[in-house]
Design brief:
The protein is α/β, with parallel strands linked by helices. It has helices at 13-27, 68-83, 96-108, 123-128, 135-144, 153-163, 186-193, 216-229, 243-252, 289-296, 309-312, 327-338, 341-358, 361-376, and strands at 2-6, 31-36, 50-54, 87-91, 116-120, 147-150, 169-171, 202-207, 232-237, 259-263, 277-280, 301-304, 320-322. The protein has two domains: 2-175 and 361-376, 3-Layer(aba) Sandwich (Rossmann fold); 186-358, Glycogen Phosphorylase B (Rossmann fold). The protein has 14 helices and 13 strands. The strands form two sheets. A seven-stranded parallel β-sheet has the order 3-2-1-4-5-6-7, sandwiched between helices. Helix 2 packs across helix 3 (96-108), helix 3 crosses helix 5 and helix 8 (216-229) packs parallel to helix 9 (243-252). The longest helix has 18 residues, at 341-358. The two termini are 30 Å apart.
């Protein structure tokens, strides 16, 4: 198949999943075309059969705000016509599903059928879509899609409850390449840990875009409590608006020399396996991709019992779950696990097993391929359940 993919190319879960899906589709022999305002950050040159098409936005002075959605629709139609795309797959409803709708309608005049699929990732529904000014057009984008997927049962049910769409929503969960996100050998892990910690020190890790919903200040609070009990270090991967507040808090608590702010990393699969535990105290996670990436590397997550995380994490088996804001509970769980290496090892093994048996790319990619084929073979007009 010839597949067009549009996503936000920045540091965030939807862009990561879209990019990794494109990489996996290309590896499976499909021709993939990314259409966005910049190249997705996880495209690193190891991809075959992948092309990138930049969306140029006019700076004409009449427009106070450049009309990206219209420029995107035009570029989608151009790429689809020139490269004879079979299908478009857009990630994040607003504005991508609306742009895809416009591109599909434009191409009808050229007798070119271009069905499009929308994958809902979370904040396009839970935040943007529920803004009164965006709700009607978000629902329109969902209903006009030829197929719709959601990354968790939680997100599917939330969308149905809040938007009452006419379109059926199929759950296809996020995934991880279990050959890329994998534990390191004992020697490689020891060498990598030596860059950040002394022998005998434990390592906690957090991975996010440092937005308020991620509650990154809670990560610092949790680590501060852990560090009082256990010799430990914290790796903070990512960047965003709350990073400076976390850095300030680390200085105020006198633990800044034990926290490594690593910024955005293109190859987080090389850092995650160095850690012992992953901390994810988010206000909301529609799936929890960072938790899954850690689990695939044998790093159990300590996370919040919100959104889609309970679908991924079995509390006490492959990770721990706590209420939002329970800093003491999450810190206490980390200390308990560090003091019980047998239990920590069992939890790490269970985390890896969950990733391998349920969420490897090799298991999820065929779900997308079959979904594409079903959409291409005829419109899915069945009502939502």
């Amino acid at each position: 198949m010839k597949i067009g993919i549009t996503c936000y190319p920045t540091y965030g879960g939807s862009g990561v999943v879209a990019t990794e899906l494109g990489i996996e589709l290309a590896a499976a022999g499909h021709q993939v075309h990314f259409i966005a305002y910049s190249q997705p950050f996880r495209l690193r040159g190891r991809e075959q059969e992948i092309a990138f098409h930049e969306v140029a936005v006019s700076n004409y002075p009449l427009f106070e705000y450049p009309p990206y959605d219209l420029a995107l629709a035009t570029r989608m139609a151009e790429v689809a016509a020139y490269y004879e795309l079979d299908i478009l797959h857009v990630h994040y409803a607003i504005p991508h599903s609306i742009s895809a709708y416009l591109a599909r309608e434009m191409l009808k005049r050229q007798n070119h059928r271009l069905p499009f699929i929308t994958t809902l990732h979370g904040t396009d529904i839970t935040l943007v879509g529920l803004d009164h000014s965006y709700l009607p057009i978000t629902r329109f984008g969902i209903d006009q899609s030829d197929g719709v997927t959601a990354i968790s049962n939680y997100l599917r049910e939330t969308t149905i409850q809040e938007f009452h769409p006419d379109r059926t929503i199929e759950v296809i969960p996020n995934f991880v390449n279990c050959d890329v996100y994998t534990p390191l050998s004992e020697a490689d892990r020891a060498a990598g840990r030596a860059r950040y910690a002394e022998p005998g020190e434990k390592i906690l890790v957090h991975l996010s875009n440092f937005r308020p919903v991620k509650r990154t200040a809670d990560v610092v609070r949790i680590f501060s409590r852990v560090a009082r009990e256990i010799p430990a270090r914290l790796l903070m991967i990512g960047d965003g608006p709350d990073r400076s507040a976390c850095e300030w808090m680390a200085h105020r608590k006198g633990i800044h020399d034990r926290i490594h702010f690593l910024g955005k990393q293109g190859s987080v699969s090389e850092i995650l396996p160095l850690a012992d535990l992953l901390v994810l105290p988010s206000e909301l996670e529609s799936f929890g991709l960072a938790a899954l990436e850690g689990m695939a590397c044998r790093v159990p997550p300590i996370a919040t019992r919100v959104g889609g995380l309970p679908e991924l994490i079995d509390d006490g088996v492959n990770g721990r779950l706590f209420p939002v804001g329970d800093v003491d509970g999450m810190a206490g769980a980390a200390v308990e696990l560090f003091r019980d290496p047998v239990r920590l090892e069992a939890m790490a093994e269970a985390a890896r097993l969950t990733a391998r048996t349920r969420y490897c790319a090799s298991k999820i990619l065929p779900l997308y391929e079959r979904f594409y084929e079903r959409i291409l073979n005829g419109p899915d007009s069945s009502p939502a359940e």
